[in-house]
Amino acid sequence: MKQLIEYLVKELVDDPEQVDISEVPGDEATTYEVRVAPDDLGKVIGKQGRIANALRTVAKAAAMKHKRKVYVEIVAT
Amino acid sequence: MPEEMDALKVRARSFAEGVAAASEFDLQVSVASEEPDGVTLAFDGPDAHLLVGRHGQGLDALQFLAMLVVNRHARERLRIVFDADRYRARREETLVKLARDLAAQVKESGEEAVLDPLSPMERRIVHSALVDDPAVTTYSEGEEPNRYIIISPAG
Fold it and tell me: Can you give the pTM of this predicted structure?
């Protein structure tokens, strides 16, 4: 899952080297914190959060493999 | 510019291959169909259903991201459709049948039929299924994402 999110985020941004995804395990859900270069924030959030929501939807579908709940959060650095 | 479209199609396919590899799922990518300005890429294999999501929302999200990534620096716009586990293909068959059944009812009763909300892509399938039927007309009402089709008697 981490690899899939990382792949998608790196494709979306101008500066893939600054992409960092950290996996934060929790009791009920795993959270993926997405960090990108400040100039790339808009490219992973989108108008009205459309891009971030698409990332969440893809992650949510893929997480069904392990029946896990996942959250994807874009973290400003 | 057909050359640019060809380059975008190659790019779309490599994006799909990248998704398949990064997902660590058992997936194969193939070109299901191609038009001058569009391509449908299909994921198949034991894990393909995992990309579909609830009511195909996983596929909608993935193809939205693909169009952003692939068309980002392009002057023209490639339309990209993703299918997985034949979800879109089966859904199209269902929608075409629904459209024809409802059109038959509308003709018989003379009353309009109102469908559940559909995505723009799925509304297009319903409209084109009935475009050649002179006895009914179709139109959409409501705002996204709750826009829905009405089938009404012609004239």
Answer: 0.89
